[in-house]
Amino acid sequence: MMGHTIRFEWELPEPFLGMMAIDDATLAEDVKRAAVLDWVRTEQLSWRAGAELLGMPLREFLTLMAAHKIPAAEYEAGWLDKELEAFKAATSQDTA
Known about the structure:
Blueprint: H1 14-20, H2 24-41, H3 47-54, H4 58-67, H5 79-95
């Protein structure tokens, strides 16, 4: 697949550069990773596409997501209660 290189400039005050990364290349990788993780978090990008963009295996990407507190599954409020009720109903029918 053909790629497209994107370049942008960001004037970062010197004190922040030292706090964020040791050099420009490391900072660029950190910004790229942050953008991809945000796109996944906001569901603009799939997990697989995120892993592919960062050039890492899916399992490693899922670990990265967890490290950044991005859930791999989202449940509605009350989901667990409904599941427990359904489980109790099913097990009570089996014992009857």
